[in-house]
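call fold(seq) -> tokens
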Amino acid sequence: MNQFPESLNINVGQYVEGFITWLMHNFGGFFHAVSSGILWFLLQMQNLMFFIPWWLVLVIVFLIGWKLKDLASGAIYTLLILLVGAFGLWNSMLLTLSIVITAVVISMLLGIPLGIFMAYNNVFNTFMRPILDGMQTMPSFVYLIPALLLFGMGKVPAVFATMIYAIPPVIRLTDLGIRNVPKEMVEAAHSFGSSNWQTLIKIQLPQALPTIMTGINQTIMMALSMVVIASMIGAKGLGLDVLGAIQHIDIGEGFEAGISIVFLAIIIDRLSQSVATRFKYPE
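ret:
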């Protein structure tokens, strides 16, 4: 009596597997095109990263830190990047940044329009909210499954899994930012003859920009948190170094790779927060 009856078991997995097989048979060309596009963008990012001399990267980080924060911050960020290079992880850092930047750019291109549409359409908003809730509460390892099924092993599924994991914040905060624009401003724009498109571009998006930048910041941080997990399906970089250190029980290598990811997270977080602050309207 304490056993759950087998007659009530539902094997949902076979239906999901059948759906994935159907997708691959009927939309294989589409997924191949998506894979080629992601790979092309990723390779362009990698070529750009490896084209810039290491010393110029340090200069750029210093100048951006100085410009957006202050002189001391610029010097600290440069020192942190220098330490990553001193650990012998310069190339791994560039590969990690290539994957993170690619995933974040794709997330912005998809997430911001989706967030705007959610703000304009309550039905779509109601439909998307439980999906975003599920995406944000799903264990990050689960995202490797659809990425593997659709794209196999390699860099492309790593970017895809990272993008799926990191995209919810930019969608949610774009929606929130647009909705929080005062109705009086929107009505005033309409009363002066502005179209919906003009109101969006000239009133709502500029007003919502600080909130959208916060969403982009959160997306970047979540993408960085996926680098170790994404390395399990073929992403190279600092995540693969951490994974290798775990497999070989090499505490020193694991610490250097792990602390390098933390350095990157600190620098990117502070710089993106500074950008968001600059767009903030005075109260």
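The two ends are 65 Å apart (CA to CA).
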